[in-house]
Please model this.
Amino acid sequence: MKFGPVPLTQAEGTMLVHGQTLGGQRYRKGHLLDADDISRLTDAGVNDVTVAIFEAGDIDENAAASRLATAATGSGVRAGIAGTGRVNLFARTAGLAMLAPDAVNRINRVDEGITISTLHPFDRVEAEQVVATIKIIPFAVAEADLTQAEEAAHAVGDAGLIAVRPYRERRVGLIQTNLPGLPDKVLVKTEGVVRNRIEALGSTLSAPVTVDHDVIAIEAALHGLVGSGAELVLIVGASATTDRRDVIPEAITRTGGTIEHFGMPVDPGNLMVLARINEVPVLALPGSARSPRLGGNDLVLERIMADIPVDGADIMGLGVGGLLKEIPSRPLPRTQAAPRARRQETSTPQFAAIILAAGQSRRMGAINKLLIEVDGKPMMRHAVDAAREAGADPVIVVTGHQPDEVQAAAGDRATFVHNPAFDDGLSTSLRVGVLAIPETCDGALIALGDMPRVGAKHLRQLVAAHDPDEGHLICVPTRNGKRGNPVFWDRRFFEDMAALGGDVGAKHLIGDYDDVVVEVPMSDDAVLTDVDSPAALERLTAEGAEEKS
Model:
């Protein structure tokens, strides 16, 4: 293919390579110039144009893209329509992307103008999702180069260069083990998370079986599920499996099963067990499987559900890219298990307090409620003083509406950050506050500026309840069973808080991570008492007068 400027007298039948306006008419890139075009351009005084001229053996971009798409399309994939040298390949069904990376690389090295881009091997895809794109960069490529690329695609075999392995519907059994002290709600939540996982992969979960965490009970449950026709068995233990000779692997072995692999180089997911009883695969899932977030167990589960063989060697090959996103259900997160610097065992935990004070207090009327005096000082200052006395450092006040007035009311014992987007909802203030927390803090109290009865004693109780080793990561105050504010959050939730949107705070995260919530009973109603209306202020004032009388 030739490319460059040519005299207009030689341009008929050539292709314009740039979209442009010539002679008062707009021509698109790729337009083939005909005799009428040449006449109009001559009348307009155009002398030359930049064009592409095909030579013998050239294949135009759309024809070349279509041919390579045909060669690359494997089972479970369909090719789209060619346009501007591009053809997308779409998944016909949900499943896992099956690719031959070496062959893709060989194709991309044939000629710089012939390209193919894909997902990663074993990436999860939905029906009609793009799994690959073929793009011919210039307006044409040589027949010999295109043929070489096609041959590289065909060499992969019958499955095709780009394929999708669909999930196969099957009956899945779930065993959960129990130990004293494990709340029933954890078992219920785990069942829901696992059921959603399985249904998303096109299968059904049978009624779960809950047994004691001992070898005999688990062995009996395995016999029952396999004997009743389960095609996959999942086990979530009340205690993590820490050795091939631990309780769950021992129970599998006693049923006549084989432990094919223990552990994996993927975090979370290190403590997974892959086993088989006859032809039935068994997965003993790590504790991270209680969370709906992606973990190493998902990588193995998805392959099993798509009938892709997976063995110990495959699992050991998952280390590159195996550091997945931190999950809050981890009792000891990576940042604490391998800290940047060793902490003194006797050191006092460091925590921050965020006091949300950006709102316009519309329910209160014309006055900003945070500026109202309660017991001789602005309402806002009660929150700051309580946080300081409880040991919070720093105390971060997020301002928005009337920032100067709020800052003056809060006093000089706080750090102030302003949220210019406070009208966009509570989440914007939370985000601004969280981003101001130093890395040295283990967690933070999220407090409201309109709860003047909350004192240092309430905050100290919440901080004292925080225990990452026991999985107590979100500490919520309660009064007679009703949850209130403020709430203490472990630092691993800061990223989730910063990602919130709209007029919502972090409350819904409590529901998402209920298994790491600890309720802290309080001796009075302070944690339920916010002053957000004239009536609430009147009640607060009356209660204060009664206490003094």
Observations:
- The first helix runs from residue 35 to 43.
- The chain has four domains: 2-53, 58-166, 171-316, 351-534.
- The mean pLDDT is 89.
- The CA atoms of residues 12 and 417 lie 66 Å apart.
